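Workshop exercise sheet. Pairs work together: one partner reads the sequence aloud, the other fills in the structure field after running the prediction. Swap roles for the next sheet.
Pair: D.N. / O.F.
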Amino acid sequence: MSTHQLELPALHSNDPLGFLAALGVLELTSVALDQAVRLSWRGLAAPAVLHTEHPLTLDELTELLVGFLPHEPGKELLPVAPGILGLPRHTAPGSPNDGLRMPIEDAHQLLRGFAAAERLHNDHRARWFAALVNQLCITPAKKVKDETQQEQQEVNDQSDHIRQKGPVWYTESTPLFAASGRMTLTNNWFKAAEQCCRDEAHVRTALTAWIRVADYTGANLDHRSTGDAAMTSDGKPSQQGVPGATWLALHAFATFRLTGDATTSAATAWDTSAELPALRWPIWTPPLTRTAISALLEHSVIRGVDPAHATDALTELGVIGICSATRTKLSNSYGPFEPGRMLWP
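Structure field:
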């Protein structure tokens, strides 16, 4: 079956934000058109290409994507999988400040319900929940250092109950998002969606020519959003993120399968072999669907230590390059991705 091609000139294969944003476009377009939309790349450090059954212009694509913007960002941030980003935070002492980090028993119960809805009604939420809530890595509640006397009394009153059940273990979220300070994935999603709702042109410029917005952080997906003094017109440091590209990139998280070893959170294409973790991804030329891309990201050849020893296998897969972007390190957390670098060829 012949397909029609649409180049996305601002989304480059060797850039972590561009790569993730292209996957986000594929995710949302596949849902909007209800067909096997495909994605490829023009080459190394080259734009993404969207393949559809019928012709699609940049204006038409922008309109499709804008249709996924939340009508009220404060109420529902993820219309394609409603309710997940609005999950309430667990309020027990020492619990995380992120609603996606919940007691493991709650996560199991929610996933069972979403999986049943998927079987019965083709509901999308099970896939999204599994991509944002990592149940293969759990951490205990933090010890509360400065509890008030009343809080301490409440804990004492429940001591017998606590001893019976043991500590509460909380899920982690996706490692693709680096939370610094009191950042959460939900509030960063809100900030990106809010900017795009305020000016829908951000969605189109994400595809064609990025426009940076002062004082927008960029969800730690883009090293250029840190905006040091040399990058600003007034010579003063300022955050300068790209709201449209960031909003699209956050939707790419559904492509990555979460993994872990109970204590360390990981994901497909997440490389933890060095001191700092890194996003590792292939550049391919054959048009691939979401499912095929997920399989490629997980392929042992892509994740191998030295891709130069697997040139023939990579070529057979249609891969022309492998890139990596390492997380930066802040004082108490990880920061934005460093620029993408070519691991192979």
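Discussion prompt: Residues 7 and 49 are 4 Å apart (CA to CA). What would you look at next?
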